[in-house]
Amino acid sequence: MAKIDIKNRGFTIVELLVVIVVIGILAAITMVSYSGISTKAKVAQEQANINSFINVMEVAYAETGSYPATTTAIENYNGSAKLPSNINVTTDNNITSSNFNTIIFFQCAASSNTCSDAIGGAVTSYVPGGGATIIYYGKATAASTFFTPAS
Description:
This protein has helices at residues 13-64, 71-75; strands at residues 87-90, 102-109, 120-127, 131-138, 146-147. By secondary structure, it is of the alpha+beta class. It has one domain (9-147). Strands 1, 2, 3, 4 and 5 form a five-stranded mixed sheet that branches. It is rod-shaped and about 95 Å long. The termini are far apart.
């Protein structure tokens, strides 16, 4: 029968360091992957919110014959389409990231600054990692004259 030498039991310092390095590499890969996925999710949510805003504007136009002329009118619109609660409509063009809330800078395409005769508008929204995005709705185009309506 062979004797077991108790002094030789356990791991060497080199084996422990190799395991720690492998765990560190796996943790780094996981963090990079998670960061990319969460950014893509934020961008997708932002785009869905912009589409929801444009849908509310188009439904309001279809139901009332005109686009809402102020941010208050948009937020308080009681038609068949509603803005999601995480959308903030503003007339302040200083758009930044906002903790999963979508901040939309709203402008109307109209012949006067009252926006009462709007033919559409422009939506500017912050997209994480991509800066500001401008989307036009209604008959508005990049060549339209835009006004910032009253809040």
